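Give me the fold.
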Amino acid sequence: MTQPVLALSGIETYYGRIQALRGVTLDVNEGEIVALIGANGAGKTTTLRTISGLLKPARGSVRFRGEDLAPYSADAIVRMGVVHSPEGRRIFPRMSVRENLELGAFARTDGSGIKNDLAEVLALFPRLSERMTQRGGTLSGGEQQMLAIARALMSQPKVLLLDEPSMGLSPILVDTIFSVIRDINKRGVTILLIEQNARKALQVASRGYVLETGAIVKAGTANALLNDDDVRKAYLGED
């Protein structure tokens, strides 16, 4: 059986004495989009922060292509190819769009490759190409989200961790963002997606996990979860 590109096993993560994750086990295979859904406070963002090395688990392991990530710092994990686009965009508001994108390539030394990737992300997000000299903080919410994802892509991710990419966006922009997520995946980037819009997330994903109070309570194909009565009631707004 093919080894997952990303595998979490028995992860327990704490904030001080408060346990946020309780034995989280999940895996993501090469080329997949996997959705992690759950209510606010379920531990979704904590899961991504643990994968990316911003938090260290008390127990359990995070493996990337079979290698335990525990010894590595967050910036080393980025260099390995696991890149986190965080909730709330977290762009640099006083820097220009170009400077934000260049910061995404901070760990790279391949000048020609950076130039090619810049052209590719601007093809994905043509609106950004019109605003290269504009400060990030003056962009609309949708444009800032585009910039956040584009900056992450400049790190050449093998696995892209997306945290709430559609938060606060209009329905039209939500459709645009999810269309881009599909395009990114078609270009060979594996994606672990956290998203409050569970229906949209499961519609683009091949598989999904449901997280409740820090524990995985359901897992299956995206189609199976879309048709699961409990998921439909709790996360899809259906009776």
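Strands lie at 6-15, 18-28, 33-37, 59-64, 67-68, 82-85, 159-163, 190-194, 207-212, 215-221.
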